[in-house]
Amino acid sequence: MSPSQTETVLVTGASGFIAGYVIEELLRHGYTVRGTVRDVARTEKTTHLTALAAQLGGRLEFVAARLDTDEGWADAVAGCTFVLHTASPNPPAIPRDEDEVIRPAVDGTLRVLRAASASGTVRRLVLTSSSLTVNAGRNEPKDGWHTEDDWSLPEACTPYAKSKLLAERAAWTFLDDLPEDRRLDLVAVIPGLVLGPLQRPEVSTSTVVVQRLLNRSMPAVPNIGWSIVDVRDIAVAHRLAMESPKAPGNRYLCGGTYTGMRDMAHVLAAEFAPQGFHVPTLRLPYPAMWLAARFDPALRVALDFVGRERLSSQKAIDELGWTSRSSAEILRDTGQSLIDHGLVHSRHK
What is the secondary structure of 293-337 as a DSSP string? Predict the structure, then answer.
């Protein structure tokens, strides 16, 4: 029996986009998986995972635990060797009160850490962070790439970016303050813009970018870009961060090739024009984008990415052996998944 077959991994926020693929990756490698959800009675967002576990012959269970209360977390971590904390609020638009996202993110992370450190069994916690924790409010580095040594400036962050920044900062501070008899390893995985195929017919906050291009819900393309990364590769990064002896105490940026939105549009147009999708490829000047963002919440969020999303994943490549799919493959798979799930419609229809 391999070590993984005797170890239980807790994945928080099991119904999330990243969490779903993390669970699949763990099941495929023989781990017993426990996932937290807000309400175990509402199975519509987890039935695909239950079916996947049955298909793979894996062991998967769900337990109730919420970021805004201590209730359930002690039971959730009981007997677990690892915790992968992916849960965090991610609104599609900027909230009126930033504490709507900051407090659940920070307080929830600390709840998970307190429960894990008190469990007596958890050895390592892997935290899902965000590239927004390294580049908000910072100029582009001289060599053109952000690294794990960079930290965002809180005063320059949108509420979501600040929630991820403060949650990760709180996690490292909590670890530093732990007594020796309750120490556990901490690793942060820092994804770029996470795209990829959907496990169920619900658009994630990040895949809205591709959905809007395919639906032509904008007349032209803003001059922004991202280090896009496939959700399946991010799932692998979580498992590697959990298993690698080199990982404890480290942050790992995981972003693929920097890809401008116009380049994304050209890939999608070439792939899906034969299916009747008319993807916009004309450039939207920044002043027009800024003006449009006053009326479009999603564009308002996108303004935070202008000129700041070039990420170096060299550390993850060197220390974890991590690899990433090409941006073209990621975009084609994301687009096809949106079509297959009926979340975008061509002009032919």
Answer: HTT-HHHHHHGGGTT---B--HHHHHHH------HHHHHHHHHHH
